[in-house]
């Protein structure tokens, strides 16, 4: 399978199923068998997903992408062995980061619900302007990429986390802020924005927010 087929949904689904590490192996840059240069796309997706994982408290080293040709069996074995050792040292997913499983599952579910939007943003706003490995890595390490990430990904991700919580049960601003470790003002801001967009409603009888 070409790495151009890599979808962030595959990666997040693996972690949601309790996998401790995800390895992506692709053809070397410049050697893609398809005109779409799938390995550059895979690199962009991997770097963006690593930023998202880091934001929710998951060690980004649990996701790794490497270039290995079909003729490099020895290199492939070496890289996979080293990655396996690294993942074992990190410990079980969540436990190694000090995140309880319920909270981690909520955050991963919120990311899953946001995947179509994340793919659109990567394609239209967060993709490196030049398709070379160096340019893509340089872009995702830049101040501009961090700014776009905060602007385009983080707010929608918090909103998705709130919606995931409210689908389980109606909650107050205080309960949401405690569950997501947000300030009350930040939780309130997201709730009122979501209410204006018709996503949530305030239940007067329960004094709690619920999905619209």
The main sheet orders its strands as 1-2
Number of strands: 4
Helix segment tally: 8
Helical fraction = 55-70%
Indicate the radius of gyration in whole angstroms.
Answer: 19 Å
Stretches where pLDDT falls below 50 for ≥5 residues? none
Question: How are helices and strands ordered from N to C?
Answer: HEHEHHHHHHEE
Query: Beta-strand level of the residues, as a percent range?
Result: 5-15%
On the 0-100 scale, what is the average pLDDT?
91
Largest sheet: 2 strands, parallel
Terminal Cα span:
41 Å
What characteristic shape results from the CA principal axes? globular
**What structural class do the secondary elements suggest?**
mainly alpha
In short:
The chain has helices spanning 8-16, 38-55, 73-90, 101-124, 133-140, 143-168, 173-180, 184-196, and strands at residues 22-26, 63-67, 200-203, 208-211. With 212 residues, the chain is mostly helical. Helix 1 runs antiparallel to helix 4 (101-124), helix 4 crosses helix 6 (143-168) and helix 6 (143-168) crosses helix 8 (184-196).
Explain what the structure shows:
This protein has 212 residues and is mainly α. The protein has eight helices and four strands, in the order αβαβααααααββ. The strands form two sheets. It has a two-stranded parallel ribbon. The termini are far apart.
């Amino acid at each position: 399978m070409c790495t151009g087929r890599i979808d962030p949904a595959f990666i997040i689904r693996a972690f949601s199923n309790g996998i401790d590490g995800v390895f992506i192996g692709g053809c070397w840059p410049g050697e893609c068998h398809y005109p779409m240069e799938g390995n550059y796309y895979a690199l962009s997706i991997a770097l963006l997903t690593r930023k998202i994982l880091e934001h929710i408290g998951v060690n980004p080293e649990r996701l790794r992408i490497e270039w290995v040709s079909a003729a490099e069996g020895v290199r492939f074995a070496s890289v996979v062995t080293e990655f396996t050792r690294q993942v074992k040292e990190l410990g079980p997913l969540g436990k190694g980061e000090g995140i309880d499983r319920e909270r981690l599952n909520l955050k991963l579910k919120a990311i899953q619900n946001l995947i179509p939007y994340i793919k659109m943003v990567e394609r239209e706003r967060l993709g490196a302007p030049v398709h070379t490995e160096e340019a893509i890595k340089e872009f995702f390490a830049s101040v501009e990429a961090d700014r776009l990430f905060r602007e385009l990904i983080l707010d929608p991700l918090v909103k998705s986390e709130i919606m995931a919580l409210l689908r389980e049960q109606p909650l107050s601003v205080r309960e949401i802020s405690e569950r997501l470790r947000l300030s009350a003002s930040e939780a309130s801001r997201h709730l009122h924005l979501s209410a204006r967009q018709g996503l949530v409603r305030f239940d007067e009888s329960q004094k709690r927010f619920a999905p619209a």
